[in-house]
Amino acid sequence: MPGGIDPHTHFEFEFMGTKSVDDFYHGTKAAIAGGTTTIIDFAFPKPGESPLDAYHTYRLKADGKVCCDYGLHVCLTGWSDQVKKDMDLLCRDHGVNSFKLFMCYDFMVDDGELYSAFEHCKNLGAIAQVHAENGKIIIKNAEKLIAKGVTGPEGHEISRPEEVEAEAVNRACVIAKQVGSPLYVSNVTSDQSAEVISAYQSKGVIVYGEVEASSVAVVGQSNNPNLLTSPPIRSSPQAQTNLLSFLASDILQVTGSDNCTFNQSQKALGKNDFRKIPNGVNGVEDRMSVIWEKGVHAGIIDPSRFVAITSTNAAKIYNLFPRKGVIAVGSDADIVIWNANETRTISAKTHHQAVDFNVFEGMTCHGVPEYVIVNGRVCVDEGQLRVAEGHGRFIETPVFPPYVYDPEKYITLLTEHKNGTVEQNTQNFQKIHLEQYSCETPTFPESVVNTPSCRGARPEGQRNIQESTFSVSEELDVDKKTSTRVRHPPGGKSSGFW
Ligand SMILES: NC(=O)NCCC(=O)O
Ligand SMILES: [Zn+2]
Description:
One of its GO terms (biological process) is pyrimidine nucleobase catabolic process. By secondary structure, this protein is of the alpha/beta class. The protein has helices spanning 24-33, 51-62, 81-93, 111-124, 135-147, 154-159, 162-179, 191-202, 213-217, 237-248, 264-267, 287-297, 303-317, 402-405, 407-412, 426-437; strands at residues 4-9, 14-15, 18-19, 36-43, 69-75, 98-102, 127-131, 183-186, 207-212, 254-256, 335-345, 364-374, 377-381, 384-385, 387-389, 414-416, 422-424, 483-485.
């Protein structure tokens, strides 16, 4: 099947006074180990940093480190003319087509800002994303709990009940409807939110919902700081089954991981006040297996729908289709050979992530990637991981995805055969991408990272991959060495070796 696309990761994210421990190397390496061949991370502006500068900061962090292809959403932490201009430039010149707004946290935006941002996204042909929880209610609830002496992690879920999420989802949908813009709701954790989304879909609003792997596979133990994420992992196992059913019936379309990992010592920053526990859990490595286990193996989701919700739908929404999300002539060679009969038991002892625990610890999953091919390079070979640092590329996401903005045109690109099967005419999709909306030459400032080259000095300690004796198979990890380091700098030339 086509390699997985995880549209929601936070690698090297400076957040809540600390930094997530999976960097772009460990995060993408782990992704590949689990069958994901493309990730989309979030460029998040630090206080005082512009969205455009945040984008450049993230390109510098990521370009030399990524083992698989990646794209960037850009977060908007406020609204101004400058933000609007940055959005124009990001869409026009830098291959960005999605912007995320938060309705909670200390960088939450208000309804007017959401309205303006959604409207501008619509004008640009971009996707507006929201993290939907009512931040003002959460602050009040948390203050009351702390005053009553509830300082432990259980306060997190109590302060953020399902209706506080569903209210924000509803508000975001109302604003999208008023503006006439498409909307993408990340982190749907409850029936209530999914039902709101369904209601607005029935009213003709283009609204998509994303579910995280942790929401369908971790049974919430609200007193465990390591499981703390936002919105919270809900306590009821029924909520998990229901989310999977919403994914099966196309009310919700996408699965992500929201991989935002903090070690136990970082989680301890909030030991006296749950508001200070860094929010986030792992999932980039285990998402595919976990969704297979809980969805396909459990009989709720069929294998075709599994491919849609782990890969193809994200490719279509973020305008990567048919380059990604499908196995077809002309598409990138991102391919997974999935063994549904094999099982593996998830553990921090064996995972490839940098974080020192795993929220799925002990879970046995059917469905193991036996081979993972990343842009033509075999990176998992009979279960053995051999990634190459810098092998991944930044992938532009052009504006006006036809799947989102032009559903009618999208439908005309589907050919219905006499036997009732429907085929996607990928050639025509490609034409739309290339001829109309493609961002041809993203600009990028001078890089500090060196390009591997057959001429000139190599960075110290780095292997010369141009040597004719070099072979990928020689890099097979025997002890701990599971990676080849091949840095691709931003804007730099690919060696063409692979
Ligand atoms: N999800 C979470 O708790 N942390 C990452 C930031 C976000 O996406 O809300
Ligand atoms: Zn997130």
